[in-house]
Amino acid sequence: MSTETKESLNFIEQIVEDDIERNIHDGRVLTRFPPEPNGYLHIGHAKAICVDFGIAQKYGGACNLRFDDTNPVTEDTEYVEAIKRDIKWLGFEWNGEALYASNYFPQLYGFAVKLIEKGLAYVDDSTPEQIAEMKGTPTKPGTDSPFRSRSVAENLELFEKMKNGDFPDGARVLRAKIDMTAPNMLMRDPVIYRIKHATHHRTGDDWCIYPMYDFAHGQSDSIEGITHSLCSLEFIHHRPLYNWCIEQLGIFPSKQYEFARMNVSYMITSKRRLLKLVNEGIVTSWDDPRMPTISGMRRRGYPPMALRTFCDKVGVAKRENLIDISLLEFCVKDELNKTAPRVMTVIDPVKVVITNYPEGQTEELTLINNPEDETQGSRTLPFSREIYIERKDFREDPPSPKKFYRLGPERNVRLKGAYIIRGESFIKDENGVITEIHCTYFPDSKSGEDTSGVKAKGVLHWVSAPHAIDVEVREYDRLFTDPTPDAHEGKDSLDFVNHDSLNVIPNAKAEPSLLQGKAGDRFQFMRLGYYCVDTDSSPEKIIFNRTVAMKDKWAKK
Fold this sequence. Notes:
The protein is of the alpha/beta class and 557 residues long. The protein has helices spanning 3-7, 11-21, 43-58, 77-89, 105-117, 128-134, 152-164, 213-224, 239-249, 271-279, 294-300, 304-314, 325-339; strands at residues 30-33, 62-67, 99-100, 121-124, 173-176, 191-195, 209-211, 229-232, 256-259, 263-264, 322-323, 342-343, 345-346, 349-354, 362-368, 378-384, 386-390, 412-415, 420-428, 434-441, 458-460, 463-464, 469-476, 502-510, 522-525, 529-533, 542-549.
């Protein structure tokens, strides 16, 4: 392989290709995605999914889905099913059946017993506070536990009693016996098993001791024969323990490699903080369209290919950095521009009466669904004497035509796919609010058939008033007012919540074709942005979530 080609690869691809060339593991590539089922997946997991599954796909391998279900207190089958949905929605398939760390509880227990027999693990009766104190600090060595010198026989007996439920939660733990003076504090006799009398979502009450993540992770990789264990950079300090366990147990030598996690401005990726947003009612659910969860982004209308493109553009690196959310929104808009049908919806309607259009007449106009994709065809929509336009598209005293191309007295505009109209007069209510605009139209100015010679620079979207349907529109700003809400010392990320992040418009006016919209359908509302039919919709009320605006007003701040 040429040097030039090698340099175009990211560092993980280079590692994999080198292993294949050297016939490591017979050239086999098997990765895994190991989420803990204690919450919904977020934008950071989207990157991990793309890396784990993407590497396997690129090199003709496979990727296991393995749930790291070692903490029965926080895990639930709801999260398991949500994670499966998210992975499939992103367009990936895992290798065979979904796997679980709980599948390996008997083997993991056996591994722990083996470490005890080798004099490399001991049962400790100390409290969590005492263990933390024994660990020392990054600049001060730890001190040995008074239980570190227990005999192998005593440790085996006590560990079996832990398994049999003879002790209450927190009474004892099993610790690996490594080095209490190690510079890496994770190597200072880490806890590898703890007692939890809790019903597990898969194994029920079969177990009352559960392995810690650091003990279950590497051994589960080894049991499955994982060749490349890919994880985010915060686990780099865990790698020595990962390797130590595999070496001491003499099992399949899986190897861990770390890449930079996904940090996106105005988003948080802590499951604990995301759960707090849900529990405190700041958002409605894990799939609230403001959430950085994959399910939230799906409900908001983000296409799966946009997320995959975003992860590809961000790339795989060894250093952490903050990705501007505008790149994600660009990827969403770029994908929707190619795929979303164009429709007309008026968010803030004001009625327009075309005084010289025949009363009672309705004609059908034909509009292209998507000029970027001719295969989407066209649709017909009604045009009549009374229509709705956006209130902001009319000014009673408009500025220079060079600065305002929309409607005003003695101003011409074209109605999209229809005729040129000219502003004549308007009616106000007692509060001075314009309630009705009167216009005339040029009968020979119909789009595609214009012989009028009349000029109009502006083009407005509109909806026929007698045929309009009422829809609810939910417009979203970012959930946080600060680009790094979880990076401020002494402050909680919730201190930066944008309490004006949701604006509900109950009675927008939409063209009648949207009556056919189903949950998840995406559209471009002409001149307004991209919108998606929400899961809360019903035949009686169609609800649209704004996916992304045409222009990002935040970019101006």
